[in-house]
Prior knowledge:
Helices cover 77% and strands 5% of the residues.
Amino acid sequence: MKAKRKWAIVSALFAPLVAHADSLQEIADFAQKICVQSLSGTETSTTIVAKLNGDANGLARALGVSVGASGLVKRDGTHYEGIPENRLPREIQTESQCRAELAKVLIAERQRLGLSAEQRSQLLSRMQQNNEKIAQIEGLIAAHAEQYRVQERNNQEQAGNIARLEGLIAQQESNLASGQGSPDARTRAQSAINEARSTINRARAMIEDALRTMSEGRQVDLRAKATIGGAQQQNEQIRQMLSQP
Length: 245
């Protein structure tokens, strides 16, 4: 399932660069042929790629290249070395995994071989944009982290103030309960108790608001990290398309 999802991502991202539906059908048919021949249990990428590159005619149709006297020939007339085995997982255990992984590699390779100079420039520009976006988001996440640290220190200070005021309230209430002091002093003590309780309530509200804000901020950070992951995945797909075999 994971391999099929990755294939779908590659196809959707670079759909404009794939020749036609018949190209995809040729790739699917070729992947099916190779995988049916190869899978009799767990196979290594070395075995599968050897059969892949060994079928020159099938590989040429799948990649849109030609077969020459000395092997496969790219559209610019230069020799094509074939698909390296490191493009596939080291071990492939099922036929469905083989078809999905192989089709993904063949699609990316056909796209790479068919790229014009303008398309390469556009892809490099996209990578640069992604890198700038990643750097910007990482900077925001780092700034948020510093804000969280400051807010946590503030919350700790508020909690300390609350504890101190609660101690003063307990002392004042004890004095009032003992009947000590003049009526004016007792009135002032009660007023101080009421003010301290108001201060405590405000401090607790500030702490709760800060905790809520930090929680919302961390959710934003998680979405931002997912955006970074998507940009990095797209860059990796572009690198694979632009890389030389």
